[in-house]
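Appendix B: complex inputs.
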Amino acid sequence: MKDIIIEQFRSFLERVAGFLPNILIGIVLIILGLVVAWFLRVIITRAGQVLRLDHLSERSGLVQILHRSGIKEPFSRLLGKLIYWIVLITFVIMGLNAFQVPAVENILSTFLLYLPNVIVAGILLFLGYLFGNFLGRAALIASVNAGLAVSGLVGRLVKYTVFIMAVAMALELLGIGKDTVLIAFAIIFGGIVLALAIAFGLGGRDAAKEYIDRMLKEKQEKKDEIEHL
Amino acid sequence: MLREEISRRLKEIGSADILVGIPSYNNADTIGHVVRAVQAGFAKYFPDKKAILINSDGGSTDGTREIVEKTMIDDFEHLLINQRQTLLSKIVTPYHGIPGKGSAFRTIFEIARGLGVRACAVVDADLRSITPEWIELLIRPVLEHGFDFVSPYYLRHKYDGTITNSIVYPVTRALYGRRIRQPIGGDFGFSGRLAEFYLAKDVWESDVARFGIDIWMTTTAVANGFKVCQAFLGAKIHAPKEPSSDLSAMLTQVLSALFMLMEEYEDKWKRVRGSSPIPMFGFQFSVGLEPVHVNIDRMIDMYKLGIKELGDIIREILSEESFDGVKETVKSSPFSIDDELWARVIYDYAVAWHKKVMSKEHILKTLTPLYLGKVASLVIDMADSNASQVEERLEALCVTFERLKTYLIERWD
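Resulting structure:
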């Protein structure tokens, strides 16, 4: 009995002794990751400042887009942070992998397979938000300059269309209700078109008549002959 | 970068004294008249000078280039020109780069440099009112009076040239202190050394390559201390364009060049106060101009639509005081945007562009409805005014811009 207990205890100690280096390697990798990530963040941020990336991003309008999305940090610092997290996550994954625990390995491999989808979906949503705002505003300004009375509606339609498309693409990428998203998308758009058709055909008969009359009148009206330049 | 065949041709010609450039794009209907006027101008006023005519074309498909090549004056006697030009050369070439007048001018400047030309002029290809005298008036001040830049002075209908009258002239005058009445006139005279100076600038991929070239040429000359004057050319009549078709694009390009130049010459215009007149060449006269139809109600509707729909965006561009002022004008009767408010609005736009409060294109494009409002206000204001009263009215606008320059400087930094 005593021998069995001792044997079991020795076997446990041997396994712990065999596992300890893995833990140590894992912890060292994570600490190393923290140091490398911090170092690279400082280097990238400084290099961005030297290469005048903040100035360039300002000139290209990127900063304004980020500002409008609530991100107020200079572009070089943002880039430094991004590199920091990418490097740190990479080292943490390597560190956890070094533990060589099957359960952790399984979770990690599932997580790693899914992670790119999550990142790309996040980027898609972010870009969808930015482009939606930008294109919506561009459409609004262009329709006002074209004299369209429904400019506000045009701007909003463009903005939300872009954003909804981005959401649909992100959901599809994450594999969440692929068919449901597609069907919902089709139903919503079909519904909008039908609603507009009904509203314009029945509820908005007078407005439609007035609009068409005005269009015809404008065509008959003598155009401005001013030379602006 | 000149094409190889053009470089070869320049080697054959060697050198020239004077040059006239005509930028063109599908101007087959009018360019023949312009070429004849230039040839007659050369023969009548500069018969002993080695002259060259350049057509810098943007890829016309209506036979514009063929017309330029074929057009020659055979009967000089009927034009009362005794001495026929013997030293006239002609080059017809397509230009490269961004499609636009600026790229066409760049080719003309390069040829001028290649031939060591002393005095140059550029005239539009769609002019119907150009006469041989224009060539003398644009070139002689450079050739014989030591000027580097000759700006045109036209007689125009009181409602025409509204971008010039309501924005470009007052702003340029207030900034640089010289009263150049038509800074974006389009037909200019300039010296060979100024052409070289233009070429050395790196602007050929910007809006300068399009509509912005005129204001860029004028401002570059004034801000860099070149000697400038004006030439009285009479009426400017040219082939009709699609009315208001791309007003927003035109306004954007002109203002983008104007504001870009404000950034470039910031240290110069900040020191300038007031303004002074510049010499004028030519015999001044008045002419009757054809009436111009204006739909004021449509302009005011566009203005109101702009304030209603773009209010949130415009609020980010204007100062609080200006925005409140703009909102008040919607209720005004008769409709009016006073000069002080207008000067503040334009200066606010310059500052917003400089500080990049949003996409630069969006900033400039939101100005279109406001601009139409100011045009409507001026049209209402000048309905019963004659030519000299109109000039007095514009003088008052310019003085307001000069007075409010301190407002611009305070907000700029």
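Residues 201 and 341 of chain B are 35 Å apart (CA to CA).
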